[in-house]
Design a protein that fits this description.
single chain; alpha/beta; Rossmann fold; two-stranded antiparallel sheet; 4 helices; about 25% helix; globular
Length: about 210
């Protein structure tokens, strides 16, 4: 898989079900919340090879910061294993003083079609960086298991009740319960969020129902 240069990102092959409750793709607004019914995203896959870079909060360069981040990473790994068109790279960011630089370097040099961000400590750094890559030929971001309070046009989020931390100095405990981060929810949210982005919803919040996963 050639990662040496940017190319046109694939779009969706297949379509979201009506019960996904997606708005009109031509006039939805940034940060609009979509509450899809279960499994209404499963018919969507990338139309061609999809180069995905996962940036995850880490203890070190090889280990997730905690079990919740490990669960999110596991969901992305499973998706790449299940979907042959997804070509995945994983990088752990473990030094808080270089979070912004690490995300910026990834957007500038990795040539990913989609950068997925996992870990509450990366929410504010990715919000800072995304605006720099929202113009012509934007770099698309997807925040998994959290939200961005004021997303730019190139950053979507996918989460669920109990895993919707917003950053911006707010108390994590108001939006986040570690026990709510489970493998079924993480996988469903990741698939739903990726399907939305592929379908043209590049700055929405996809919130899956916790009572179904």
């Amino acid at each position: 898989m050639d990662w040496s240069a940017r190319h046109a990102a694939p779009h969706a092959q297949g379509a979201l079900d009506t019960a996904f409750h997606a708005p009109n793709v031509k006039d939805y607004y940034s940060s609009q919340v979509i509450n899809p019914a279960p499994e209404t995203w499963t018919k969507v896959r990338p139309s061609t090879h999809y180069r995905v870079l996962l940036l995850a909060a880490g203890k070190d360069a090889n280990t997730a910061h905690d079990s919740q981040v490990a669960t999110l990473v596991g969901a992305v790994r499973r998706w790449a294993k299940d979907e042959s068109r997804v070509k995945l790279k994983i990088r752990y960011l473990f030094d808080p003083t270089t979070y912004i630089q690490g995300i910026d370097d990834a957007a500038k040099h990795d040539n990913a079609d989609l950068i997925i961000v996992a870990g509450n400590s990366l929410v504010e750094p990715v919000a800072v960086v995304s605006a720099n890559y929202a113009g012509d030929d934007p770099q698309q971001f997807l925040v998994l298991g959290a939200e961005v309070a004021e997303p730019t046009a190139n950053i979507a989020a996918t989460d669920w009740k109990g895993s919707a931390y917003l950053g911006e100095g707010l108390k994590e405990s108001q939006f986040y319960e570690p026990a709510a981060v489970t493998a079924p929810r993480a996988y469903a949210a990741l698939r739903a969020g990726a399907a939305a982005v592929l379908s043209g919803y590049t700055s929405v919040i996809i919130r899956i129902p916790t009572d179904q996963y």
